[in-house]
């Protein structure tokens, strides 16, 4: 279980790097061009992922996160968001490296941003975060076709083949 948790935190950081690099390489203005989406544009969608990562980081650390919603009204510039995302990705990797099997199975109780109480194991939180970011990176990938541009392939099997080979 620990080996999988450690692989998943590294996979998530790898996939985030690919999508941020691809968004940064788009023609000027495309990353923030308004799209038919709940989260306005590519950068705002990536900001949502970042906010959720930070919310669950706070849950794992047993502290308040300070967010009143699952996204902020606006987003920082892409380069600032990327620096912040790298920081939280590094935190999750270090967190997974320090875990024990018992800790991974331990329950965390928290309050949902929208209200109501929640409880998940650390392992369930990690699975949620990986699924959540993959889901929303998929929305960003769809927006690439409106540019038109080809999004990067961020699938887990590609990571296992290319970036995690032998480990």
Quaternary arrangement of the chains shown?
single chain
**What is Rg?**
16 Å
Tally of alpha and pi helices: 6
Number of E strands = 2
The percent of residues in helical segments reads 55-70%
CA-to-CA gap between the ends? 15 Å
Strand percent estimate = 5-15%
The strands making up the biggest β-sheet line up spatially as 1-2
The topology string of helices and strands comes to HHHHEEHH
Helix-and-strand structural type: mainly alpha
Mean pLDDT, all residues = 96
The profile of the biggest β sheet is: 2 strands, antiparallel
Looking at the structure, what is the overall shape? Answer: globular
Low-confidence stretches: none
Give a verbal description of the structure.
By secondary structure, the chain is mainly alpha-helical. The protein contains six helices and two strands; from the N terminus they run H-H-H-H-E-E-H-H. The chain has a two-stranded antiparallel ribbon. Strand 1 (107-111) and strand 2 form a beta hairpin. It is globular and about 45 Å long. The two termini are 15 Å apart. 26% of the residues are buried.
């Amino acid at each position: 279980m620990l080996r999988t948790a450690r692989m998943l935190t590294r996979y998530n950081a790898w996939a985030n790097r690919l999508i941020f690099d691809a968004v940064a390489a788009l023609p000027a203005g495309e990353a923030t061009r308004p799209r038919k989406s709940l989260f306005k544009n590519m950068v705002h969608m990536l900001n949502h992922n970042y906010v959720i990562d930070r919310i669950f980081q706070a849950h794992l650390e047993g502290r308040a996160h300070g967010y009143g919603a699952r996204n902020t009204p606006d987003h920082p510039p892409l380069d600032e968001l990327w620096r912040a995302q790298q920081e939280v990705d590094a935190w999750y990797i270090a967190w997974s490296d320090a875990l024990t099997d018992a800790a991974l199975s331990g329950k965390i109780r928290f309050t949902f941003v929208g209200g109501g109480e929640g409880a998940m194991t650390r392992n369930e939180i990690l699975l949620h975060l990986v699924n959540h970011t993959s889901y929303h990176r998929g929305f960003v990938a769809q927006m690439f076709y409106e540019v038109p541009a080809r999004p990067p392939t961020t699938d887990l099997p590609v990571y296992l083949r290319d970036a995690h080979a032998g480990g």
